[in-house]
C-alpha cells in the first residue's frame, strides 16, 4: 500500500505499471480498478489555464492513509496505490491516481470508488484556478461522484 | 495555554495571514479560538477545523500545545 | 471508441497510454475509470497453469460494441477503449481492459462498471482452464461483480 | 429451408462437432432445431442460443439461411 504526494508532473499509467511490477502479487490479483483525475481546461463555464493545489502537509498524508485503511477494512485489497499532485498544475496534468488490486472485481470497483469519494470530501486539498483572463478564484466545493452532473 | 493556529486556502486570504501563535486562557473551544484570533471577522460559513491534524468540531476544546487549523471545504481530487 | 480482440499478450497500461495520446481529448476529460481483468493462478480451490479463451467470431465483437453503445446512451463518455484477449493465455496475462474517459467521475465510474458487468454476462467468451495436474475444465459460470465474494 | 448450426465451448465437446448444415422443414423453433440436430441428447440446462449473432429465445422461429448458435453460459472478462 502506497500513498504519496507529488509536486511534479507524473504519468499515471507508468506509475501503475511500475508499482504493479514491484508489488510481488503476480498471479494473485484478478481485478485492478483505477481512477485517474485530470485537470480540464474548462470549469463552471470558464476557460481555465492553470491551477494551484494547496494542501496541509502532514494532515493530508494522514487523511489519505486513513481513507485507504478504512477501505482495506471493508474490502479485500491485495495492494493499493494513491498518488495526488500538489503545487502548480496545468491543464491535462494528472491530479490524482487511485489503483486497487484485488482477487475479484467487486472489491476493486467498490474500494477504488470509496477511496475517491472520501478523498474528495475529506482530504485537505484546495484548488485555486487561474482563468484565461488572468483572474484567480478558489474552487468552493466538490460535487458528489455518486450523483449525476447536470 | 499556548496554541498554534493555521489558515488555509481562501481563509488564509481572508484573514490575511497563514497562522498565529496565541496565548489564551483555558478552557477554550475551537470556535472561541477563532473569535479570539479574528475578533473583527464573522465566523465563515462551512468553516472546517482540525486539532493536531484530525478533524474537530467547532465546540471541541483545545489543549495547551495544540495545532489548530481552520479551512474551507476541501476540493482535491 | 475502440473495441478489439487480441490473440497476443498486451500491456494494458501501455494500451491506455497510447489510446489516450491519440484520442485528441486532452484538456477535455477530468475522469478516467479503468478496469483490468488478469488471469489468476488459482481458481475454485485449484492451481491453474493455463487457460483457453474461446469466442464466437463476429457475435463477440457485435455484443461488445452494443454494450459500449448502451453505456454511451446512459452516461456521458468522451472516449472508450475495450480490449479482450482470446486464445491461449497464461497466469498474469491481461484478459480484459475497459477504460472510459469522461468529464466527470460519476459517469466514468458508472459506465466502466456497467460495461464490465454486461461483458461478463452477455459477451460470448468461454474459459477452459488447464489445472496443475494437467486436467482441463470449462469454467461454468461468471459471478456477479455487484455481490460480495464468499 | 437451410440452416447453419454452430456449437461452442462445453457444448461443442458434448455434441462432438463444431457445427451442422441442416435442411429442415419450416416453421421450426430454435428448440426444435436443437432436437432435430441432436435427437439422442437431452436439452442442456441453461442452453443459450443466437440467431445471426443476436441472442434468441428457444421458442424463436428460424428462417431459411439463418446461422443458429448454441452455447453454455458465457464466462469472459
UniProtKB/TrEMBL annotation, chains A, C:
Quaternary structure, from the entry: Heterotetramer of 2 MoaD subunits and 2 MoaE subunits. Also stable as homodimer. The enzyme changes between these two forms during catalysis.
Protein name: Molybdopterin synthase catalytic subunit
Family per record: Belongs to the MoaE family.
Pathway assigned in UniProt: Cofactor biosynthesis; molybdopterin biosynthesis
Substrates-to-products reaction catalysed: 2 [molybdopterin-synthase sulfur-carrier protein]-C-terminal-Gly-aminoethanethioate + cyclic pyranopterin phosphate + H2O = molybdopterin + 2 [molybdopterin-synthase sulfur-carrier protein]-C-terminal Gly-Gly + 2 H(+)
SUPFAM superfamilies referenced in this protein's UniProt entry, alphabetically: Molybdopterin synthase subunit MoaE
Entries under InterPro entries matching the protein: MoaE_sf, Mopterin_biosynth_MoaE
Protein EC: 2.8.1.12
Sequence intervals crossing the membrane: none
Domain of life, per lineage: Bacteria
Keywords on record: Molybdenum cofactor biosynthesis
Annotated source species: Methylomonas aurea
Lineage: Bacteria, Pseudomonadati, Pseudomonadota, Gammaproteobacteria, Methylococcales
Pfam families recorded: MoaE (PF02391)
From TrEMBL, chains B, D:
Keyword Transport: no
Pfam families: ThiS
Keywords for the protein's UniProt record, in alphabetical order: Nucleotide-binding
Family matches, as SUPFAM superfamilies: MoaD/ThiS (SSF54285)
PANTHER family cross-referenced by the UniProt entry: MOLYBDOPTERIN SYNTHASE SULFUR CARRIER SUBUNIT
Family to which the UniProt record says this protein belongs: Belongs to the MoaD family.
Protein name: Molybdopterin synthase sulfur carrier subunit
Species assigned in the record: Methylomonas aurea
